Amino acid sequence: MIARLEHRFVTAIAVICLVAISATSCGLDTKVNELLNPPAPKKTPIASFVANNDTVKVGTPVILDGSSSYDPQGETITFAWALEVPSGSASALSSATTSTTSFTPDKGGYYAVSLVVTNASAKQSVVTTMEIDAVGTGLNHPPVAVTTAAVTVTSGNSAVLDGSQSYDADQNALAYTWTLIGAPSTSAVTGVNDGSSKTAYFNPDVPGVYNVKLVVFDGLDSDQALVTVTVSSTAQNSAPTARFTADNETVRVGTPVRLDATTSSDPQGKTLSYAWSLAVPKGSTSALTSTTSVVTSFTPNKGGVYLVYLKVTNSSSVASETVTLLIDSVGTGDNHPPVAITTAALTGTVRTVVVLDGSQSYDADQQNLTYTWTLVGSPTGSAAAMTDDTLQRAYFTPDVAGKYVIKFVVSDGRDTDEVFVTVTAS
Q: Which strands sit side by side in the sheet containing 416-425, from one edge to the other?
């Protein structure tokens, strides 16, 4: 029995040794080691860069150095730069794929630079970003002049120049200057109309190319943009141009606004007809004095924004594009008065409650409103009185047949508005 056990033990040892020798000779020990100790996953590369300055003067080159980027495994990396520029800027990177690149800010504002690196195993880094601030005098951001670079019109038609998209990153007020710097040799045009406004125009007198310069100034720094106006020979049926002005674009409630479209024109010199329209704030009953004359007006009776539209049509029934102007109606200072809204006429029954609803009243400046309901007229012999007369909704009970007149006043703390309600009780 003991001899058999010794024989089996010796045999098992021999088998184990044989397996071990075979595994070593065929490379299984390496495979077993890889299974027990798998290689660590490859790490992503790291994108890192510096700029020679993160606050620079407009026109000063910015050097961007990404040579500190690396790959943990030591693999070769490639570079991918990107640049986001302020509106109106034409700045660009000198290279988007080298370890070092540069750009020159041509406008005031913020430039966002980003870098991504990729290793030989196609693994990408996290995006690294830096903001470069381009300034002018001191830490002032120069304004940015924005206008249409090329305008095409026909002879006899006005060339409209629009700089309203110009802006200042510091929210400073801008001054505008339009200058005619080039015209055809036979032209007698010497300047630009409304040359200090956001939108200007001039009337080309001969075909050819006219060059206009726009300069915007924020009190410290300026910027300029050039417009090329190409004037072609008059077409036989070109559309007219609608244009109008208001004597004031910000007015007090109750102040008339005069609208003048005499600068509208037709390239063939044809007679024009006028079509005005007016969009008013909720609760307003303001209307144009005329919708078809060359000059019209309206009087804002509520605080808020009024939109005036004009389209002109020539005698060949060719219509212009519709032009729009915003009129802002205010009260005390720059405050927009509230607007009182309720049902103007109601019917009721004697000894039955009548509810008065002012909840649709509003204030364009989002200020809190106070409410006052006052019974200002009632039939002879009535003793009716208001209830909840300082809330959005009030009520009263008619006690005698006839007409009851209620005044509703809303206040925003600076200005008020009022409307009247007539209740007929039977």
A: 345-348, 416-425, 402-411, 370-377
